[in-house]
Write a structure and sequence with these properties.
By secondary structure, this protein is of the alpha/beta class. It has 8 helices and 14 strands. The protein folds into 2 domains: 143 residues, NAD(P)-binding Rossmann-like Domain (Rossmann fold, 3-Layer(aba) Sandwich); 185 residues, Dihydrodipicolinate Reductase, domain 2. Helix 1 crosses helix 8, helix 3 packs across helix 5 and helix 3 packs across helix 8. The longest helix is centred in the last third of the chain and has 18 residues. It binds 3-amino-D-alanine. It catalyses: L-aspartate 4-semialdehyde + phosphate + NADP(+) = 4-phospho-L-aspartate + NADPH + H(+).
Length: 341
């Protein structure tokens, strides 16, 4: 006997990937239901490449009683309404929004990094999925932290338009095309022109001049990996459709050479090291699309500090940064707690 699984927000960028990845990984589901808002209710959506069509149901009218788990990709406002309702009905919510990430009663999980923390899910029947830029970074940091203890991280991100949803991707496409033919498309989703440009601003501004995206990288990394790590972030939107990149500078307590770090990363779960130190011997976002791994390249010493390293980290933000991590959490939940069969 398998699980009864809900995918809420099935028509969005992340929801579609959730369905694709559940199907690709042959998640042991007896039944899958796709939910969305009333706008999409009645439409159909394919379950991965299986040919199986799911009829989309309206989340407002859906009764979660008897369903084992729900993967949510519906944004914080709708999550606030529906997550407590699903959790109270006994359906464990794996939530991709930022709503519960810093709730002390909600585990924030990256399965390669802090799988044991999932045991705390029973407090609210909710498990949080981290922000995309945090997820890939902690996969890279964890094995290095275990080896030499990280003291401080300075990260700059290069985040793709898909992190802002389908509207973000559409705006990048339409603006790029318009500029080619001499037209203009005014920014709607982004605050400045995204085509042929970069924007040092993701999510809203906070009082100290940082942005919420930068704040998320700091507090989520501390919650998932180690509250003692000092971290500062600059998050930038770039004209790439899918795939977030990060330049990460790390200071360690103990010595760790670039070669030792490469050897550790080569064996680390979820990591693919591509680091040839030659033309093209590194990964760029277009090459990581559709992949599960967090790719690491350009590992090198930073001789300006004691025990410092630089590296380049790229991953499919819709997969490891969102849908894949949620499905991995579902698999972990099944293995450890909701055993079936
Ligand atoms: C972004 N972090 O890239 C967001 C998506 N979760 O905008």
């Amino acid at each position: 006997m398998g699980y009864r699984v809900v995918v809420a927000g099935a028509t969005g960028n992340v929801g579609r990937e959730m369905l694709n990845i559940l199907a690709e990984r042959e998640f042991p589901a007896d039944e899958i239901v796709a939910l969305a808002s009333s706008r999409s209710a009645g439409d159909t959506i394919e379950y991965g490449d299986t040919g199986k069509m799911l009829k989309i149901q309206n989340i407002e009218h859906f009764d979660p009683t008897g369903w084992d788990m729900a993967l949510f990709a519906i944004g914080s406002d709708a999550t606030k309404i529906h997550a407590p309702r699903f959790a109270a009905a006994g359906c464990v919510v794996i939530d991709n929004s930022s709503l519960y990430r810093m709730d002390p009663d909600v585990p924030l999980i990256v399965p390669e990094v802090n799988p044991d923390a999932i045991d705390g899910y029973t407090a609210r029947n909710i498990i949080a999925n981290p922000n995309c830029s945090t997820a890939q970074m902690v996969v890279a940091l964890k094995p290095l932290h275990d080896a030499a203890k990280i003291l401080r991280v300075v990260v700059s991100t290069y985040q793709s338009a898909s992190g802002a949803g389908k509207e973000g991707m559409d705006e990048l496409f339409e603006q790029s095309r318009a500029i080619f033919v001499g037209d203009q498309v005014e920014p709607r989703k982004f605050t400045k022109q995204i085509a042929f440009n970069v924007i040092p601003h993701i999510d809203k501004f906070l009082e100290d001049g940082s942005t919420k995206e930068e704040w998320k990288m700091v507090v989520e990394t501390k919650k998932i990996l180690d509250p003692k790590i000092k971290i500062t972030a600059t998050c930038v939107r770039v004209p790439v459709f899918v795939g977030h990149s990060e330049s990460i500078n790390i200071e360690f307590e103990n010595e760790l050479s670039a070669e030792e770090a490469q050897n550790i990363l080569r064996e680390a779960p979820g990591v693919m090291l591509v680091d040839k130190r030659e033309d093209g011997g590194y990964v760029t976002p277009v090459e990581c699309v559709g992949d599960y791994a967090t790719f690491i390249s350009r590992v090198r010493d930073d001789s300006t500090v004691d025990n410092g390293l630089n590296l380049w980290c790229v991953s499919d933000n819709l997969r490891k940064g969102a849908a894949l991590n949620a499905v991995q959490i579902a698999e972990l939940l099944g293995r450890r707690h909701l055993k079936k069969g």
